[in-house]
Amino acid sequence: MSKVIEGDRASFPSHDPPHSYTTFRLRDDWFGIATDLVKEITVVPPLTPIPHAPGAVRGYVNLRGHIVLVVDLNCLLQRSPAELGDDSRLIVFKPQMGDAWGVLVERIGDMVELTTRQIESHRAGGDGDRQHAGLLPQEELVHGVGKLDGHLLLILDACRLPSLLEHAIERRDQALFSHRNKSKERSL
Amino acid sequence: MTDPSSPDPALLELFRAELETHLATLGSGVLALEKSPDDIQQLESLMRAAHSIKGAARIVGFDAAVQVSHHLEDCFVAAQRGQITLTSDGVDVLLRGVDALGRLGTSAAAGEVRPQSPEELERWMDEIAAVRSGGSSADSTPPTSAASEAAVLEFVSEAKEHLANVVQDLLALEQRPGEADAECLARLLRGLHSIKGGAGFVGCRTIEQLAHAMENVLESLQQTGTAADSSVVDTLLAGTDRTQALVDDAQRSNEADVADTLQRLRQCLAAPKPAAADRVSIESPSQQRPADSPGAAVDPVSSTAEPPRGPDRSATLRIPVPLVDQLMTLAGELVLVRNQAMRSIELGEAAVRPVLQRLDTLTSQLQGAVTQTRMQPVGNLFARFPRTVRDMARQMGKSIELEVSGTEVELDKSVLEQLSDPLTHLIRNCCDHGLESSEQRTAAGKPAAGRIKMCARQQGGQICIEIRDDGRGINVEQVRRKVLETGLRTAADLARLNDKETLGLITLPGVSTARQVTDVSGRGVGMDVVKTNLDRLGGTLEIDSTLGQGTTFSLRVPLTLAIIPCLMVRTQDQCYAIPQKDLEELVCLHRQQDQPRIECTMEQEVVRLRDRLLPLVRLSEVLAHPEPFDVETREAIVRKHRPDGETLFAVVKVGERRFGLIVDQILKNEEIVVKPMHGLLKPLTCFSGATILGDGHIALILNMEGIVQHAGVRFAEHVRQEPADSSRSGETAPVLLFRYGPDEQFAVPLAMIRRLVMVDPARIERVGSREFLLVDGETTPLLRLDRVLPVSTAPPAHPLFLLLPKNIGRPLGLLATSIIDTDTLPAGITYDAWQADGVVGSAVLRGRMTLLLDLCRLAERSDPAEAPTQADDARRRQSRILVVDDTEFFRELVRGYLEEAGYEAVSVADGNRALEALQGDTFDLVVSDIEMPVMDGWTLAKTIRQQAALADLPLLALTTLSSDADRDRARSCGFNGYEVKLDRQQFLRTVAELLGQKVEAFSS
């Protein structure tokens, strides 16, 4: 777990302290989000679908007596929906991210410590940026790009996820509606 | 360390709570003063309220509040003594003072003890001084003789509480002699000050003196910044001991001589700077104290230096709301665990069952009790409205009377709080543009003073609050125009709505029919707020208005938000919950000749159920379409579903409208703990929340209003079916078909059943030969048909069903092994001549002989103590009674009851035939149903009353309608009695009473 706290930084202002990131895989890409925001990581309990919700919303789960909203991060990032498998995990966020919710990921990786120097700013327009331009449609989501064991690690600005979800629900974003609803429409 | 000038937030919160309780008294009391300015009792209670606020404000050191309440108190005292007479203007000033206190309370809640606008307060002080100077200035302290015994008792318990704290703080002060603990000192001063104030109020002068002397000592410490050495603390403690003794015997405290104690206290004051000297190290001050104290031997009280007793706790207790909320949540969770345990044990060991049953009972009781702690009378909220109405009336130069009733009805605190805004909006609306000006009213032939009636009553798990004015009413056409202007609905949309639904549109944002925007209302925002608030509560708003006669707003809100009974249904492998409050009945249609069929009108599926067309909505389709239905979708749905086989639907109500919600499967009733939907999913209006079921699964709670909107349900006006065949003897009653033993089929009229529940046979408890089951927290005796009727015994079955009858006045559950269906009784029933055993008759239904049961009679038979009395007297034999009922079943049942009781009974099927019978024959009593074809009970009663020969004929209404409004209407139509179908004994008692009245009338 990250031991980096505000006080340390304050006492060593010139120092560049490492931040902890929780890494996970979606399809063939590795992502990271600030561990500070993560409450727990768990296997995915049985899902109760929520009709009318956009496809990114996979449903509710009962996590030890608490109802948690499960969002498919793949869908939210406008990629094709995640397949649930043995390696699938649910990353549940802390209360500062709003009402209880979490994201589905295909595989969980290690927790890594990176200093800001080790993360290329995505918006700075460096070489790395050009390489992964177009990897995600929502550029503002990417906080930066790091390197991990030779592969790239996209650091997501998780704080932006709730508003992304909110917009998807408000617009009733058709692109984000899942196969679940589509299959039913076809049967009509 | 805290700055002593900014008081403890917890104390401020207490002050605010205290203030709130007294403000209500002040507000309503001052208003009452306007009508009767010299009501001594009223003034007395006002004075007390102001005084209490003053005391509380002093404790927290809130000077502005002290001053305001002090001035108010002064005025009340002067008025009480007849020194001044309060005019309307005076009352205005007083009311503004009350308002100022309210605002101060609000700032106190924010931790602020300075008034927000001191200038305004200054002005008010001048005004109140003017009011006050109406008489000679006299001292403001209330006369000691006025102090009642109760006040003294209150003072004693308060003083004890303060003294206990004072002692603790003194000891703390001694422990830390180095630095004068400012917070501690301030607390001490406040405590002593309160004691002093209280003592002064009840006239205990000696205690007042002691407290004052101690206060002086502490004040000198505070001002000089000297540390309290142990000798000073000793003296102070001796002083508190003395005070304690006096408080214990407060009534005689003035006789005591405290000169020595006062003297010692004064000495402390005289030498307030021990400086560096005498900084005694203190190991154990409380033990040292009696020995060190020079006055110990003299002072008999300090020798009994036991620790001061804790404050007297009265029967009530203030609990922080978050704690109650937490209890509520925990109780809710416990209910869930209970449900899970009950479910997992269904297959489990027998030894665990009694324990579980106990757990079940206790959980229900706990949940009930915890819910109760949050209940508050609605009167707490209503109390503010007389004031609102008065102010608005004065402001607008109207004359308005407000009538409030049902204040004792209790509601969950959180619901009550959220109702405050909507109700205020509605009341202000009524005052502003609901009611006309006095001139307009007089011109329209109405009384000059407008009337607003506000009433609350409980209906099942809901509270209904009605606000009714007798003003100009709302112009429906104007609403239509306005809605069109705003573009929120199209003309086609509007054409589909009836008047009442159109009125409902005034809750849309931006729609206001007020001709001008006043500073009070008219911007079209208010009603939107009302609707939003009610939606959040799961409540509904209905608007009824007659142009020129007035408007009625009916709000319905749930009693509590936390736990609600629901029916669980299944559609496409998912469980959904339908709140019981939305549910009317469950219907299963088979594809048979005699069954109502699903028809299509336009692109809406409907079914003709009894006398009305019921629109149908398929839950599966609602769930499958994320977008609200458009015409194509609706047509596609109608094309897709060809009614075949069984169709199962729940009849649900949204306001006064009904529709059928088709589901795949009905599961069971369950009490669920409501969890709100995730904040981001609020736009999904078809769901009002989610819950975790006993088996750990999650179910979404359906929101019927949202579903109606989503599916665009078209409601047809109710259609009344003319009886197809006039030779047929009236309407047929819907019945529930069920089985007990393997050989017979039974039927009970649906109108007689309150509820049907599924039960686990393992939960039945036996006492001797009798069986009981806990249903909704009530011990319900069970009735097995084979015990009271010569029918076959039940095979072991799981689960069993329990029929809970309506209106029989005692708990009872009729056991059934399987529920077959509901059906309507065909013509051609054989009615038994003698119905005493509880079987009304028999008929062939669904190809089987079916026994029609009389639940009421069965209930009597199951309980030996309730055995029917067979005694009949001479008068009964002479009495002839006419029974009017369109339902053959009830007609025969009632006739049977009457004949068996020794009366002569004749029965007819409707009002017209009743009139014919009355022309040709004489009767002593008419028992009539209300809802009948051709001529209903209302008309029948009115017609009878118009005929001189029949003017004295007693009329008894016997109906399934049970609302107060119906009772009132029956009375105004001319009925002498009113009975709800059908408690046999109660019915016969009323019959006897009505006949008795007539006999007496003749003999006198």
Physical arrangement of strands within the biggest beta sheet of chain B: 10-14-15-13-12-11
Q: Provide the helix percentage of chain A.
A: 10-25%
Number of helices of chain B: 33
Q: List unreliable stretches of 5+ residues of chain B.
A: 1-5, 135-146, 272-314, 515-524, 717-730, 866-875, 999-1004
Which structural category do the helix and sheet elements of chain A fall into?
alpha+beta
Return the average pLDDT of chain B rounded to an integer.
76
User: Could you tell me which chain pair has the largest interface and how many residues each side has?
Assistant: A-B, 30 and 27 residues
Structural class category of chain B: alpha+beta
Low-confidence stretches of chain A: 1-13, 124-131, 173-188
- Determine the strand fraction of chain B and express it as a percent band: 15-25%
Over all CA atoms, what is the radius of gyration of chain A? 17 Å
The count of DSSP E runs of length 2 or more, i.e. the number of strands of chain B, is: 35
3D shape of chain A: globular
Strand tally of chain A, please?
A: 11
β-sheet strand percentage of chain A:
35-45%
Largest sheet of chain B: 6 strands, mixed
Shape of chain B: globular
The DSSP helix count of chain A reads 5
Can you describe this structure?
The complex is a heterodimer of chains A (188) and B (1004). Chain A is an alpha+beta fold and 188 residues long. Chain A has 5 helices and 11 strands, in the order αβββββαββββαββαα. In chain A, a hairpin with a 7-residue loop joins β6 (89-93) and β7. Chain A starts with 5 loop residues before the first helix and ends with a helix. Chain B is an alpha+beta fold and 1004 residues long. Chain B has 33 helices and 35 strands. In chain B, strands 10-14-15-13-12-11 form a 6-stranded mixed beta sheet. A 6-stranded mixed beta sheet of chain B has the order 27-19-20-30-29-28. In chain B, a hairpin with a 2-residue loop joins β4 (450-459) and β5. In chain B, α4 runs antiparallel to α5 (118-132). Chain B is globular, with a radius of gyration of 36 Å. The N and C termini of chain B lie far apart (87 Å). At the A-B interface, β4, α4 and α5 of A face α23, β17 and β18 of B.
